Amino acid sequence: MSALKLVFLGAPGAGKGTQAKILSEKLGLVHISSGDLFRQAAESGTELGQLAKSYMEKGLLVPDEVTIKLILERISSLSPGQGFILDGFPRTKPQAEALEKEVEIDKAVYLKVPKDELIRRLSSRWICRNCQTPYNLLSHPPKVAGRCDLCGGELYQREDDKEETVRKRIEVYLEQTAPLLDFYARKGKLLEVDGGKGAEEVAVDLLQALQKL
Ligand code: AMP
């Protein structure tokens, strides 16, 4: 399955990053997270990073032109036949159309999670500054407080996980990204998974669903 080309859809807090990490390791896929790429650029203070930061901190989407270029360049840098998971891209119709022109996606995985659960998850989410592994202080705390189990890196709370920004991000998701569910459903590519369960259970369901393809 190392040649699978997947898109992960779902609201902020649906578990896209967590599931993409588990699945990419299990299936030998490259995990491409637009949010991680923007956060890394913001940390290094590049021109792209400064631009991305000005949108991210307001809970808004980075303009399509910039985002499409970043992700398509990342995809074209992969070796031929290498499968991947796009986590957080596409998030708008123009992004989905630009992607479609470049590569044929096998499935768009939709992690479905109720809104109350999204807000609960995001407000207790902490991330490793070094390897980006997400933790949840309530349901998946690190073994040592404030430190990543995998690499020992420092954990931090994302600026845009504060409540007001979270509400804005969910609003933006409903307006601009949710229509992509229909976009992929019409092409017969949508694979809906119940993302409201624990991370490990979701990963098992997801693997089973993909093995049936
Ligand atoms: P995420 O880590 O996926 O929640 O993304 C964090 C932030 O990065 C988003 O709130 C946007 O500001 C920006 N971002 C990530 N992916 C995209 C995308 N595909 N299009 C536009 N902005 C994005």
Overview of the molecule:
This protein is α/β, with parallel strands linked by helices and 213 residues long. The protein has helices spanning 16-27, 34-44, 47-56, 64-76, 93-102, 115-123, 163-177, 179-186, 199-211, and strands at 5-9, 30-33, 84-87, 107-112, 125-128, 134-136, 155-156, 190-194. Helix 1 packs across helix 9 (199-211) and helix 6 (115-123) crosses helix 7 (163-177). The structure holds adenosine monophosphate (AMP). Adenosine monophosphate binds next to helix 2 and helix 3.
How is this fold's topology laid out?
Elements: E1 5-9, H1 16-27, E2 30-33, H2 34-44, H3 47-56, H4 64-76, E3 84-87, H5 93-102, E4 107-112, H6 115-123, E5 125-128, E6 134-136, E7 155-156, H7 163-177, H8 179-186, E8 190-194, H9 199-211
Parallel strand pairs: 1-3, 1-4, 2-3, 4-8
Antiparallel strand pairs: 5-6, 5-7
Helix pairs in contact: 1-9, 2-3, 4-5, 6-7
The chain binds adenosine monophosphate.
Adenosine monophosphate (AMP) is lined by residues 12, 34-35, 38, 55-56, 59-62, 67, 88-91, 95, 160, 169.
Q: What's the short version?
A:
By secondary structure, this protein is α/β, with parallel strands linked by helices. It has helices at residues 16-27, 34-44, 47-56, 64-76, 93-102, 115-123, 163-177, 179-186, 199-211; strands spanning 5-9, 30-33, 84-87, 107-112, 125-128, 134-136, 155-156, 190-194.
